[in-house]
Design goal:
The structure is a homodimer of 591-residue chains. By secondary structure, chain A is an alpha+beta fold. Chain A is 25% helix and 20% strand. In chain A, helix 12 runs antiparallel to helix 13. The interface between A and B is large, with 141 and 142 residues. Chains A, B: It comes from Salmo trutta.
């Protein structure tokens, strides 16, 4: 049982600043220090537990304080329901003697105890989020988020003269914006849309001469159920005029450095920068985790004259190659790999203690090839080689295996990645367009249609658009994309060409943007950082839900209030919509 | 015609901070000073106009700079389409000689010129908002907004230890929340709702031990067409634990003082504070404009023995009274009042130069009554008296006339209110409940059901709820309510009583909040400031649209992008809704 508890609430705090200003209390529990001995203090907080019927251990957001209760204070003794051993407290040196006590509220039996070691199911945490947030980890996460965001604002506003501008979230549906929530208006058939990002507005602000814009922008994405995604999320949204890629990258490096939590090792800048091509070649992925090596290698040479049928076939096709990764000490996961996830397109080679190979390929490889393979891969006894043959598509497969093997190794106790390391990386020079999956003769934007081409590729936009690289940059942290942006097209004619001729989209849907570009748009570019993801990596949280105060469940539900919920037909009338109930489901409505 | 324009864009700015850091430019136009003479500078901006075929007047957000163009630079001379006289520039003392020029973009003929003196219609401004925002007034408004908000954050976070927490905007519909937009989900019949404020979340955060919460919160209100309202708006949302009214009021006074624009006269604190009762008695309104007097007076005594029928009737009814306001120098609007808006329930008395009265009541008033009237009202020749008789309901009528007369007087050139004055005022001790308009035997919350009663009235909650005053406080500035808040009910049993017994609402709809209060909720209270309104008063804007980057029109439309817009039936399928077209309107759909 928890009791709300405070000492001497009849007078006000004399603090004029800090966490106790304007409050009933004079101090927080966690800030009591030997220097306060002899002072009369007022504390407000929760009874964490009672100890020996004599002490109340009181908790507030800042920590614990042990308070000696005079023996005539009977009421509190009733509250003793458990006594547990006390972990060392930062204020353990001093003792607080209660002079008066006021019980401000009482507490029902809680569904779980507010103790950090008490494990709760995810759904229970979500249902009673207001209790879950009392945990020291969640308090840390939310308070760190606030501090980090404050530092970001100081850096952008005060150091670099950015203007914080709020943009609308009730907007017009983007052409093809399948992931946008719709919001019915009171005009029949007309809907607002909740935008996935303020992309159009930030560019319009550049045309408007705002010059340096930023916003902590709430964004919306209706993706149904995707793991660790939220229907609403927050991005640090930035746009600048008269700037190039290097300018934006420098700004962001400074931003990260400035706002980085003081308790972590400082971040050094500039961040390494690699091209998309190099990332794919070395890591098989466009957001490489560079905390460990295990890079992809082209070992085609080794099998130049091979008799092994599928390798020969692979090498004979256009662009064919044989790729490998070497997993140091991979022997420990040799069997696990086969058990769990081993794809049949990949051959596994174990380098035994005596240097011999254990593999299905072994029998078909001449000794010289084996020797060459070990040399090329710099493989030593105990290592594991994963080999894949095909075109360049075999790289993403190995890239995925690389990450899975790192996890398996760590699960087996082999240190692969330093959990306290933060590896930032820029990935640049992405292709501007990619073939559409459903119709490879058509092109679609690799990121979005507003990205400008690299200056040296700009001439190809009108001749060989599939060859054009864009001025897009991704910021990657420990193998997660935490941000992305680009220098934008700022000439209306280029934008029109991209929309109409290359992407075959109806440019009239973006006529306001085209008109704006045609009104003297400055060269401009920007970036958006995924704040939730960034924070979850900093605090080492398994999910972005752990850095959001009131997140939705996997299925997009608020388990506390039970949103989304049914709305009566009557309430929908003013929006001129009605629900199409699937056959047999109508009964659900009344719930 | 406007040309984008810069000098020497081939090298980067060497500034590491400020508005030119990381940019192509080295200086902004407005910051060039005699001390820069001899320096090579890089400017980026718009060609405002050309002068004598020799000078380019260049504009960026910071101001203008005059640049001398060498005679061989022919291209620019083509751009001369108008020459107008130059107003004095802050940098007028120095001259910039162009060494090189790069034209970054060209510009079509604009729908209006970017000159402050060019008057544009509201709809044209909205349609080309990205041009409208280039005006110096809109630049000032948006930049002031950013700075003011930054100072507010510094005050709350850095000075008082508040935590900036983001709360969801996809939430559950509030019982009776007729003004909430609905957002269909992918589950048939289930809708999210866009909340009007984070009220529930801020209280839950107090239960969660966040202790001091704030947020610049985006809020939503679907009110159809109301003048100078926006479907989405921003409030400075604040909540604190272990605090009383005085604590919150002190916090807000400090907040306003800290964030107040330096170019304005400083704000003095504490703000005056009056009760709701006194406000209604003196001003006939709960948000009085205290920049001028013209207070309401009870002149019942004067007509104690009157023969005038309707006054006698008024005084004979329970609570009957006769109220008046005296308008100094009101003679100048005597005829206008009758022309424009004069309500027949009000009698007008003009005090003529000779002290005689001109009024329909004149004939029926004995000389002694006239004398008493002039004395009570302290009316002098040239003043106007407005008299209304009835119950207390006649006060709001006079309160409204008081404001209308002030406007009329100002329109006639009589100084009533100092346009540079900012009068802050707290209004407190509101009734907690009011009789429902449609059923006066039922009570409804005067503000919202979470407001705590005044401690001295708390015992009445269970006996005479209509007599209970609440711990609600409104912040009023120059007669506009710019904020409101309260100390909340923090005991579940009291909250349940208010919801169930007094308001006859189904408490199960707020079961999560009741459960939360029952989990040891601390005493807490908070406030929300309407940021848009507050800013519009500070900058003297006629509408909140002038402090919002991309506002909606009166009818809730985005005239630039044409939102809300039609969405195909197909796109609505995944949300299981269809449009109910009003008869004969279906053809509209394809637009």
């Amino acid at each position: 049982m928890h009791l709300r508890f405070s000492l001497n609430v009849n007078k006000h705090s004399t603090c004029t600043t800090g966490s106790s200003s304007l409050s009933f209390r004079s101090h927080t529990c966690g800030e009591l220090r030997p220097a306060d001995v002899g002072e009369e203090v007022i504390l407000c907080g929760w009874v964490q537990y009672l100890r020996q019927d004599l002490f109340v251990i009181m908790r507030d957001f800042s920590g614990l304080a042990q308070i000696l209760i005079p023996q005539d204070e009977v009421r509190l003794q009733v509250a003793v329901t458990f006594t547990i051993s006390v972990t060392e407290m930062p204020t353990g040196e001093i003792e607080v003697l209660a002079e008066s006590v006021e019980i401000l509220n009482v507490c029902r039996k809680l569904p779980f105890e507010i103790k950090d070691f008490v494990k709760k199911s995810e759904s229970l945490r979500m249902q009673y989020r207001y209790l879950d947030l009392r945990s020291s980890q969640m308090q840390y996460n939310l308070r760190l988020r606030s501090q980090l965001v404050m530092k970001m604002r100081e850096y952008l506003c005060n150091v670099h003269g950015f203007v914080d501008v709020e943009t609308p979230t009730l907007f017009k549906r983007t052409p093809g914006g399948a992931k946008e929530f719709v919001v019915p208006s009171r005009e029949p058939g007309r809907f607002y849309s909740l935008p996935q990002s303020p992309q159009q507005f930030k560019q319009l602000l550049m045309v408007a001469g705002i010059d340096r814009y930023f916003q902590l922008a709430r964004c919306y994405r209706d993706e149904g159920s995707k793991p660790d995604r939220q229907p609403e999320f927050t991005q640090v949204d930035i746009e600048m005029s008269f700037v190039d890629q290097a300018g934006i990258r420098g700004l962001i490096e400074g931003l990260v450095q400035y706002s980085w939590p003081v308790e972590k090792d400082p971040v050094s800048t500039p961040f390494p920068c690699i091209t998309y091509e190099k990332a794919m070649k070395d890591y098989g992925v466009d957001k490489p985790d560079t905390r460990f090596a295990m890079k992809l290698m082209d070992i085609s040479k080794t099998f130049h004259n091979t008799e092994i049928e599928f390798l020969k076939d692979a090498l004979n096709q256009p662009g064919g190659c044989i790729q490998a990764i070497c997993i140091p000490d991979g022997a420990v996961i040799f069997f696990v790999i086969f058990l769990y996830f081993f794809p049949k397109e990949v051959s596994v080679v174990l380098v035994k203690a005596d240097g011999a190979l254990k593999s299905s390929l072994n029998r078909l490889m001449p000794a010289s090839a084996k020797q060459q393979l070990l040399q090329m891969a710099q493989a030593r006894p105990g290592d594991l080689l994963l080999i894949s043959a095909g075109t360049q598509e075999c790289r993403p497969l190995l890239g995925k295996l690389r990450l899975q093997c790192a996890e398996l190794l760590e699960g087996s106790g082999v240190a692969v990645r330093d959990p306290s390391a933060f590896h930032f990386l820029w990935v640049v020079d992405f292709p501007l367009f990619l073939p559409k999956e459903e119709d490879p003769d058509q092109l679609e934007s690799a990121h979005h249609p507003f990205t400008a081409p690299l200056p040296e590729d700009a001439h190809l936009l009108y001749s060989l658009p599939h060859k054009v690289r864009g001025q897009h940059y991704d910021l990657v942290l420990n193998g997660c994309e935490i941000g992305g942006g680009s220098i934008r097209i700022h000439k209306a004619s280029d934008q029109q060409h991209v929309l109409e001729t290359i992407l075959k989209e109806d440019p009239s849907l973006l006529s306001h943007l085209l008109e704006a570009l045609d009104s003297g748009a400055p060269p401009h570019g920007g970036i958006a950082l995924g704040l939730d993801r960034f924070l979850s990596i900093i605090v080492g949280a398994p999910s972005i839900r752990d850095v959001i105060a009131f997140p939705k469940s996997f299925r997009g539900h608020d388990l506390m209030s039970r949103a989304p919920d049914f709305v009566s037909e009557d309430e929908l009338k003013s929006y001129h919509i009605s629900v199409n109930w699937p056959a047999g489901d109508e009964g659900n409505q009344e719930k």
